[in-house]
Amino acid sequence: MKKALAMMSIIIFTLLMLVACGKEDVSKDEPKDTTKEEVKDDEDKKEEDEIENNEEDDDGTSDDDKDLATGNIMNPAIAEETGGDVEVIYTNDNPEIEHKMNGLDVKINQYQIVRVTDMNQSSEQQFPDLEGYVITADITAKNTSKQALYYTPSFRIQTDDRYDYISSRVIYYIPEDKKLQLNGGPFEAGSEHNFYHVFLLNNEEFEKVSSLEPKFIVESGVADNKEFKGSYNEEGFFDFAVNEEQVKKLATATKFYEDKLTTDSIAEKELIYEKTDINETQELDNFKFTVEGVQYTEITPNESSKERFRNFGDNDLVALTIQVSMNNESDVMVYGDGGSAKLVVNDNEMTFLSQGMVENYHPRELNPGEEGYRQIVFIFDKKYFELYDKYELEVGPFLGKDGYEFKEKTLHFELPAPK
């Protein structure tokens, strides 16, 4: 009897061991000796990767480009940090945004807009409603000069006007390998850095951006010293689409001269007439001043800018923007905006002064050997504009450090009238 029980115990024990071994084979959580299998798996995976890479090389498309084309997430840190559901809204893999600043070239390679919902409670500080939108910009900064350059990358999306914008951020939702690692130092000569910046928008802000014609601003401030003395102060202004509808609209839109009416979103423009190939140059003591072209536009001030135009009442308005360039081959410094300008119409019937508040120019000081540009702007009532058929630009005298230069002489250009 005892032998029979002992034999039965051995059989039961053996069966249990077999069952346990069977479970061990299919369990993913229990450790096992898979050295040979892992080596084989690694070799198989390597062969698969090589095949996939060869296929991608054949069609000339990178992993990142294919991922974006199929709607994949460009920035995984958003889901990781928010714990939310992430949906791709729009991806632009060729935004044509590049700003060159005295040796430092800043380029937006691509950007992606995602909607995030059902976030963790810890995201409440960034998104009080625990939902919203994140725009990730993939950026490259390259120092093409032969010296170290100091710059703090900053970007903003402009909405109503230059005072209404969304600034980029670097604290939230950026993967470790996409953080700019300068540690307060400069961009060394010849160096190139790739990094991310993000923009956080609530639902209302995204609706607003979608309904306007937003601008992407690359902020300036490049210098060759830690104190940023004499830094490059020209910002870069670019169209910024957040959906396909805006892309289509921009593709057929008129390329307006970049006065502040345009860059600061002060007014909407409708083209009346343009001539962009005038290219007439006059000079004073080797200071060359060129009228490149003109645009006549009907303008409608935006809601936030109407107060600036109160002197015109409720009248319809026309703006004349004159694109000019300057090449200072003289031996004196001239201020970029230092040449006063006036418009004489219909042989002195009327004279208008330029509107400096809506003009852009660069640089502030045009030293010998330097080149610059300016948009000269005149604004008048449309009802009077329709009576004018002859326009003459008078510009100068030109202001320098010691007063007016070039013996206080002025330049005169006949401008084409709308046909």
UniProtKB/TrEMBL annotation:
Leader sequence segment: 1-22
PROSITE patterns assigned to the protein according to its UniProt record, in alphabetical order: PROKAR_LIPOPROTEIN
Ranges of Acidic residues composition bias in the record: 44-66
Keyword annotations: Signal
InterPro entries to which the protein is assigned, alphabetical: DUF5068
Region feature (Disordered): 24-70
Keyword Cell wall biogenesis/degradation: no
Pfam name, any one: DUF5068
Keyword Ribonucleoprotein attached: no
Extent of Basic and acidic residues compositional bias: 24-43
Protein name: DUF5068 domain-containing protein
Native organism: Cerasibacillus quisquiliarum
